[in-house]
Design brief:
By secondary structure, the chain is mostly helical. The protein has one domain (11-158): Up-down Bundle (Ferritin). The protein contains 5 helices and no strands. α1 runs antiparallel to α2. The radius of gyration is 17 Å and the shape is elongated. It starts with 10 loop residues before the first helix and ends with a helix. This is DNA starvation/stationary phase protection protein. It comes from Pedobacter cryophilus. Belongs to the Dps family. Pfam families: Ferritin.
Length: 160
């Protein structure tokens, strides 16, 4: 007989979902630091608009990270909390942003978004189809919408 956690979800079904959320959390942490590096190191005639845009993106990532960690806790587990875990588990990789052209920075962020969107779709599927967790699915759908719209805008900026 399976046990039900404190918010009415079956523990057994939540374990895989929490693993997916923790992997998403690890990827967001590396993405967050990448965007911070872009914010600090952007140069050239696009400085003003990209400096502000990168700040918007890392602020959003920081809020997302906190929501992900708190959702993991809500589901009864602990979120990953070390950079060693983040680096080991993340599909998103660190880059050196010093001296990187602005267009390459934006392309790196777009690549991160593409990976995050794929992961978020997997979490939504797991949450709805396997765990019956509409709360997690709803939260992730909000993250997904932001990245889809922002991806479109960044692609327009690079002319793609």
């Amino acid at each position: 007989m399976s046990t039900v956690n404190k918010i009415g979800l079956e523990d057994k079904k939540v374990i895989e979902l929490v693993d997916h959320l923790n992997l998403l959390l690890a990827n967001y942490q590396i993405h967050y630091q990448k965007v911070r590096g872009c914010h600090w190191n952007v140069r050239g005639h696009n400085f003003f608009n990209l400096h502000v845009k990168f700040e918007e993106l890392y602020d959003n990532a920081q809020l997302t990270i906190d929501e992900l960690a708190e959702r993991v806790l809500t589901l009864g587990k602990s979120p990953y909390s070390t950079y060693a875990d983040y680096i080991e588990l993340s599909e998103i990789k660190e880059i050196k942003t010093e001296g990187l052209p602005a267009e390459k920075m934006v392309e790196a962020i777009l690549d991160d978004f593409k990976k995050l969107i794929v992961m978020e779709r997997e979490v939504i599927e797991n949450a709805t189809d396997n765990a019956g967790d509409e709360g997690t699915a709803d939260m992730i759908i909000g993250f997904l919408r932001f990245k889809e719209k922002t991806s479109w805008m960044l692609r327009a900026w690079v002319g793609k």
